[in-house]
């Protein structure tokens, strides 16, 4: 320990006795080796208006395709055959198939609308207001975070709902061969699971799909509550219709798990 201390002391004394030119070169090398704090945060800020428009366009196009396919396939199982009427489980699968397709159509339509609105906002903004270090920094900033979260969460929710609906459709359509129907349903559900695995591991989210969906619901609820007054009747009616929709779904689930004589308590 004493030897190490002496060597460090001698090295320091030698550096202090060095010429001014040597000390200047050493200080330049030290400053070059340590990056500035501004470089660690953002190297170059540039305008990401074009990239932001391309991002929302890339989300809007597949959302339109999924929405068209969902509303087109929603009426496939509307004709109820006698064997399906006699089976409560088959009726539940049929109803779930219809509901998942309608959910997919609704959230994908929301994705299309929000994407279009975000593109219009980006096009009307001057370039100085879209300066950022990266596209993610721009979209996750205070100006476009709601649109970014809404588009990603609604598109993924609609895609998962549509894929799960196709799994239920395979189970109902191939019901005459139970093994084939089960195999097709589980394979399609495995694709749904793979979509979730890829989204949670490779995409930039708020802690996975669950965190992204929770963030979207919280931001949507905060937006509705901020305009929840009699001067904005659309927000009030939207909250009321959401509550009525969940009540009807819960009532249907209650009736599907009970006998035909059981009824939902009326309010």
Question: Describe it for me?
Answer:
By secondary structure, this protein is mostly helical. It folds into two domains: about 40-210; about 225-265, no CATH class. Helices cover about 75% and strands about 0% of the residues. The chain has helices at about 1-15, 20-35, 35-40, 50-75, 80-85, 90-125, 135-140, 145-175, 180-200, 210-225, 235-255; strands spanning about 45, 130. It has a two-stranded antiparallel sheet. Helix 4 (about 50-75) packs antiparallel against helix 6 (about 90-125) and helix 8 packs across helix 10. The protein is globular and about 65 Å long. The N and C termini lie far apart (about 85 Å). The model is unreliable at about 1-40 and about 260-265 (pLDDT under 50).
Short description:
The chain has 267 residues and is an all-alpha fold. The protein has helices at 2-16, 20-33, 37-41, 49-73, 82-85, 88-124, 135-139, 145-173, 178-202, 208-226, 233-257, and strands at 46-47, 131-132. The chain contains eleven helices and two strands.
The N- and C-terminal alpha carbons lie at a distance of: 83 Å
Helix content class: over 70%
Spatial shape = globular
* Domain module count: 2
Q: What structural class do the secondary elements suggest?
A: mainly alpha
User: How does the major sheet shape up?
Assistant: 2 strands, antiparallel
Query: Which parts are unreliable, with pLDDT below 50 for 5 consecutive residues or more?
Result: 1-41, 259-267
What's the pLDDT, averaged over the residues?
A: 76
The ordered H/E elements are HHHEHHHEHHHHH
User: How much of the sequence is in beta strands?
Assistant: under 5%
Provide the gyration radius in Å.
Answer: 29 Å
Q: In what order do the strands lie side by side in the largest sheet? A: 1-2
Helix run count = 11
């Amino acid at each position: 320990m004493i030897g190490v201390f002496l060597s460090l002391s001698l090295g320091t004394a030698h550096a202090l006795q060095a010429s001014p030119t040597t000390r200047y070169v050493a200080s330049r090398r030290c400053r070059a080796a340590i990056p500035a704090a501004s470089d660690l945060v953002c190297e170059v800020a540039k305008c990401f208006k074009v990239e932001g428009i391309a991002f929302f366009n890339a989300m809007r196009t597949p959302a339109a395709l999924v929405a068209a396919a969902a509303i087109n396939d929603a009426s496939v199982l509307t004709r109820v055959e006698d064997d399906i009427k006699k089976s409560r489980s088959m009726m539940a699968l049929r109803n779930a198939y219809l509901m998942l397709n309608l959910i997919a159509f609704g959230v994908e339509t929301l994705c299309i609308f929000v994407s279009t609105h975000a593109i219009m906002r980006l096009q009307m903004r001057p370039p100085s207001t879209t300066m950022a270090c990266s596209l993610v920094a721009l979209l996750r900033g205070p100006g476009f975070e709601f649109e970014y979260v809404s588009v990603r969460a609604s598109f993924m929710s609609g895609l998962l709902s549509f894929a799960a609906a196709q799994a239920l459709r395979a189970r109902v359509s191939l019901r005459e061969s139970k093994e084939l129907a089960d195999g097709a349903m589980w394979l399609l559900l495995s694709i749904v699971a793979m979509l979730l695995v890829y989204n949670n591991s490779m995409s930039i989210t708020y802690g996975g799909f669950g965190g992204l969906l929770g963030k979207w619901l919280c931001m949507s609820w905060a937006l509705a509550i901020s305009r929840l007054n009699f001067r904005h009747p659309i927000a009030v009616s939207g909250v009321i219709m959401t509550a009525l929709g969940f009540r009807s779904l819960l009532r249907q689930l209650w009736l599907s798990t009970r006998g035909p004589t059981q009824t939902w308590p009326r309010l």
